Amino acid sequence: MRRTLVLLGGIGLLALLLTPATGSASSAARAAQVRAQTAQDTLAFGRTLYQQGCVSCHGLDPAGPSNYPTVPSLADVGGASAVDWVLRTGRMPWRSTVGPAIERGKPKYNESETRALSLYVGEAVGDSDLPTVDIGQGDVKRGRDLYAQACAACHGMNGAGAALGGANIAPSLRDVAPLDTAEAMRIGPGVMPVFEGGDYDAAGVNSIAAYVHSLKTGADDVGGAPIGGKGPVPEGFVAWVIGLGALILVAKRIGGKT
Ligand code: HEC
Ligand code: HEC
Fold first, then answer.
1. Mean pLDDT score, 119-132
2. How far is the CA of 167 from the centre of ligand 1 (A)?
3. Contact 90/109 with Cβ under 8 angstroms?
C-alpha cells in the first residue's frame, strides 16, 4: 500500500517536472508577451483611475501643472513612492480643503488600483521606483540611535508625534507600517526632509523602520504618557484640560483662603 503511494507520488512529480519542458521556447515568448501586455494594461488602468480621481486637482498630465495654486504638481513630490504612500494611508484623494495637515483616512483604492495609479504617475514623472523594506534585516539598536538623531525632534522619541507650529503636524508613528517609514524617508512629505543615502541606505532604513515598528508594541518605550498613541492633537487637548483644571483648582484654593 505504502509502496504504491510512493510510486504514484513519484510518477506525479515526474509529470510535473516534465510538463514545462514541452514547447518551452514558445511558452517563454508567450510569457514575455503576457507580461508586457499586463504592464500595458496596468498603465492604462492607472491612467483611467487618474482621470477619474485626480485630474480635477492635479491636472491632466501628472508631470504638468496642477489646476490650483494650493495643489502641488505631482512632478516632484516623490513619484510612485509618494502616490503609493498617499493612497495606502488614505490621504488622497483630498477630502477637505481645511485642516492642519493631510491626515490619514480610510484608503479609497484597493491594492491593484494603488499599484496601477503609482505606476502610471511614476512613469509619467520619471520616478517609478518603490522602496523595499525588511525590518527582519534591521538592527533595532542602531535604528534607535539614528531615529534619536534624525526623527525624534519632530516625531518624539516614543513616536507620539508633535505639533510643529503653523499648520504642520508631525503625525504619530505608532500605527505606521514599515513601508510607510521607508516611503516617507524617500519622499520627505510636507516639512519633513528627505533621508536618503549615507546612514539612510537600505540597512539604515531597515533599522529605523524596525525601531519605529517596535514603538507599536511599546517594547522600547522611553517615557512620556502615550495616551493611547492617538497623536499630538488629543495629547495637547489632554494637557490643556488637565493642566487648566489643575490651575483652576489652585486658583480657587488661593482665592478661598484670602
Ligand atoms: C480635491 C483636490 C485633490 C484631489 C482630487 C487629489 N488631490 Fe492630491 N493633493 C491635493 C492637495 C491640496 C495636496 C497638498 C496637500 C498638502 O501638502 O497639504 C495634494 C498632494 C498630493 C500628493 C503629495 C503629498 C505630499 O505630502 O507630498 C500626492 C502624491 C497626491 N496629492 C496624489 C494624488 C492622487 C494620486 C490623487 C488621485 C487618486 C489625488 N492626489 C487627488 C489635492 C487633491
Ligand atoms: C522637520 C520635522 C520632521 C523630521 C525631522 C522627520 N519628520 Fe517624519 N513627518 C513630518 C511631517 C510634518 C509629516 C507629515 C507630512 C504630511 O502629512 O504631509 C511626517 C510624516 C512621516 C511619516 C508618515 C506617517 C503616516 O501617518 O503615514 C513617517 C512614517 C515619518 N514621518 C517618519 C519619519 C522618520 C523615520 C524620520 C527620521 C528619519 C522623520 N520622519 C523625520 C516631520 C518630520
1. 96
2. 16
3. no
Q: Which pLDDT does position 86 carry in this prediction?
A: 96
- The rounded Å distance from CA 240 to ligand 1 centre is 32
pLDDT at site 100: 53
Residue spans of alpha helices (H) in the chain:
2-18, 24-53, 55-58, 79-88, 111-125, 140-150, 152-155, 178-187, 202-217, 232-257
What is the whole-number distance in angstroms between the Cα of residue 38 and the centre of ligand 2? Answer: 34
- Is the beta carbon of 188 within 6 A of some atom in ligand 1? no
Domains and CATH numbers, the chain: 31-125 (1.10.760), 135-234 (1.10.760.10)
25-51 confidence digits (pLDDT tens)? 678 888 888 887 888 899 999 999 999
Full-model pTM: 0.78
